[in-house]
Design brief:
Layout: H1 2-11, H2 14-31, H3 36-54, H4 58-82, H5 94-118, H6 124-142, H7 148-165, H8 169-197
Helix pairs in contact: 2-3, 2-8, 3-4, 4-6, 5-6, 6-7, 7-8
Length: 198
């Protein structure tokens, strides 16, 4: 088993390593609420557009393209909010989350059915679920909503598996580290949110 893992690591290309390093930088910078995270995230996502397509994960490839666009929006929104006193971390009402989860579930089923019929997608249901969850979580990050971290924990847990079984061990480890960072990110942002409310 160790030999198989080592062979997999040796076969890993430089593009994946660069995408992982930039992705890790993105999460750490966003955790610290630094705008430079959006630049690192965009660069990582550009590389993952190609890598996910090569791994026959079309929804992940589209998701990465969306991340590039959201990086531009996130940079703009965080820059604009820096000068506002009300530009801190906010929460979303439970009702909104229930509606979001319902929409994610419905879109997941519809997209997975289409992928099964029209593509050679390796994991249509999981690919779709993580895509829609991540789309929503990215928007929450750009809006500085506290709960974004909880959506990331859910999506990244599935992506650890998806990228591992498709032969991207470094990416799988990256998503595992994202889960750990998301736990700490949620706690740090929650502390900041409570200080804002005090």
């Amino acid at each position: 088993m160790i030999d198989a893992l080592l062979r997999e690591l040796y076969a890993t290309g430089g593009l994946e390593i660069a995408a992982v390093a930039l992705g890790f930088a993105y999460v750490l910078l966003i955790y610290r609420r630094q705008r430079a995270g959006w630049v690192a995230g965009a660069a990582s996502s550009i590389l993952y557009v190609y890598l996910a397509a090569r791994a026959r994960l079309p929804m992940q490839s589209l998701l990465q393209f969306y991340y590039v666009l959201m990086s531009v929006y996130g940079w703009y929104n965080w820059t604009r909010r820096q000068g506002e006193r009300a530009g801190g971390i906010a929460r979303w009402p439970l009702r909104n989350h229930l509606l979001a989860l319902l929409a994610i579930g419905l879109l997941t089923v519809l997209t997975a059915q289409w992928l099964r019929r029209e593509t050679h997608a390796a994991w249509p249901m999981l690919d779709s679920m993580t895509t829609w969850t991540s789309l929503f979580a990215t928007w929450l990050v750009a809006q500085l909503k506290l709960e974004n971290w909880l959506y990331w924990i859910a999506a990244d847990s599935i992506m650890v598996f998806l990228f591992a079984v498709q032969g991207f061990p470094f990416s799988s480890v990256l998503f595992l580290s994202y889960i750990i960072i998301a736990v700490f990110g949620f706690r740090a942002w929650l502390r900041t949110y409570r200080l804002q409310q005090a």
